[in-house]
Amino acid sequence: MSLDVDALIGPDGWITWEALLARIDRKTVSDWVAAGRLLRVQPGVYTVPSAALDRRVRLEAIAGATGGLISHRSALALWELVPWVDGPVHVTVDFARSGRGSAGVLLHRSRDLTDVARRVDGLPVTSVERAVVDAWGVPGGAGRDELRAAAISGVRRRLCGPRDILREVGRRPCLPGRAELSSLVGLLSDGCQSELEIWGCLQVLRAPAMPPFVQQRRVTVAGEVFVLDAAYDDVLLAVEMDGAAWHGSREQRERDIRRDALLATIGWQTLRFGWTRMRSAPDACRRDILAAYLARQRLMTPERVR
Fold it and tell me: Domains of the chain: which residue ranges?
């Protein structure tokens, strides 16, 4: 009787060596592999050819065979915070297990996995905050700019919070680049939600002689809630930092115009700075903000003007 390989493998698309031997003999396995009816995708893990190129099946097989969590840059890709690239899959296993990997798999060992275990599309992965910190210490092909963007996006999308990342940083006193990541987390805690806001905060808004401001200020107008990038409450002056990707469309520009007009009805003036101008002319941006601030200050305290 001819056995159905697909039925034997089952709906997951992969099977372990031990499970195979519980159903068929070693010679049959060898014959199927030799004939190309069965593929060995990892040591002790087999799949049918039609499923071998399916990334999800491969990841599930790797996680199932190792008993670990997809981690580092691989986890960030599953969280859709970095793009997928060709290269080894990172997996973190319990510290008691062997750290020896295999072709296409990089194994990492950790003592504290229970509280960072999550699932994405049914696959076991590390939490966003753990994946960010792990990848920061062992980039595995990811540059710091890409990892910074992943941390910023993770916080903005509420997949993790700055405190979560900071807690993971605290577990890694010898983390390479620890000070840089801690500084980034501090800016995220302050309310920065993009690289432009971080640049603007450090190079423009917090420069010497600039007045104090608050970030992510919530303002309600006619039942609508708007969040200001930076706000000078004492003079009702808002500063918005517009990235080209988000504010470049006609629809978004129209929404910005409407938003600024509504804020003006309750006394707020809005200054907008794009990526190019803020990065290329921070001094001019500071002068514009300071001039507007002082003018608003004079308007709102007329008793000082004689």
Answer: 5-53, 66-190, 195-304
More confident site: 190 or 269:
269
* Mean pLDDT, rounded, for 46-58: 78
Query: Is a pLDDT exceeding 50 seen at residue 26?
Result: yes
Q: Lowest-pLDDT range, 9-13, 99-103, 196-200?
A: 99-103
Four-way CATH pick for 195-304: 3.40.960.10, 1.10.10.10, 3.40.50.850, 3.40.50.11210: 3.40.960.10
Res. 181: pLDDT tops 90: yes
Structure tokens at 174: 């010898």
CA distances from 57 to 120, 122, 171 (A): 13, 11, 32
Model confidence, pTM:
0.77
SS (H, E, C) the chain: CCCCHHHHHCCCCEEEHHHHHCCCCHHHHHHHHHHCCCEEEECCEEECHHHHCCHHHHHHHHHHHHCCEECHHHHHHHCCCCCCCCCCEEEEEECCCCCCCECCEEEEEECCCHHHEEEECCEEEECHHHHHHHHHHCCCCCCHHHHHHHHHHHHHCCCCCHHHHHHHHHCCCCCCCHHHHHHHHHHHHHCCCCHHHHHHHHHHHCCCCCCCCEEEEEEEECCEEEEEEEEECCCCEEEEEECHHHHCCHHHHHHHHHHHHHHHCCCCEEEEEEHHHHHHCHHHHHHHHHHHHHHHHHHHCHHHCC
Extract the tokens encoding 224: 């609508």
Give the residue-averaged pLDDT of 116-123: 94
